[in-house]
Amino acid sequence: MGPGVGPGRGLGYFLLPAGGALSLTGVVTGSGTLISLSWIMWVLGILLVLGNRYRRPADPRELAAAAAAGDARAVRRLRTLALTARAEGRPETAERLLRQAVKAGDTESMWELGRLVEQREGLAAARPWFRMAAERGHAVAKRLFRPGGALHPDGAEDPAP
Predict the structure, then answer these.
(1) Each residue of 75-106: b (16+ CB within 10 Å) or e?
(2) Directed axis angle between helix 60-68 and helix 72-87, to 10°?
(3) Spatial separation of the C-alpha atoms in residues 108 and 73, rounded to whole Å
(4) Which segments in the chain show pLDDT lower than 50?
(5) Which candidate in 29, 48, 58, 151 could, as Cys together with 144 as Cys, close a disulfide (CB 3.0–4.6 Å)?
(6) pLDDT tens digit sequence for 49-70
(7) Strand, coil or helix: what is 95?
């Protein structure tokens, strides 16, 4: 597993209410087995929730190194960190992380980097990133280069494959 990634990330939040429902069912039906199982679910749920709470956050440098080495999970984590940074109003951090994911060949990061550049500098500045994504098969980016698309309005330029 990559840095900061562990099993049961959301499983703990599932086990707690499921354990409660199982416990209630056990009480209503008088089943000691269901009540025992519910306690196991509760304990596991609490341990997973607490374990995730104290987990070390992902280090972007470690993720970038893992992404460069071909770790697809690290690439996705970089993109997720970048999108979180963008949503939090940190576009410089988002751009840096997206560029690292792009270096690893992530098509979705190419698209997202294009969107980020477009917001800041306009469509013309974002064109290379959108083209790169389109050439690698990104469906929405390919639409921009079709005749009549935002980056191919008059049909004068060859659309991306």
Answers:
(1) bbbbbebbbebbeeeebebbbbbbbbbbebeb
(2) 140
(3) 13
(4) 1-6, 155, 158-161
(5) 151
(6) 887 766 666 788 888 888 888 8
(7) helix
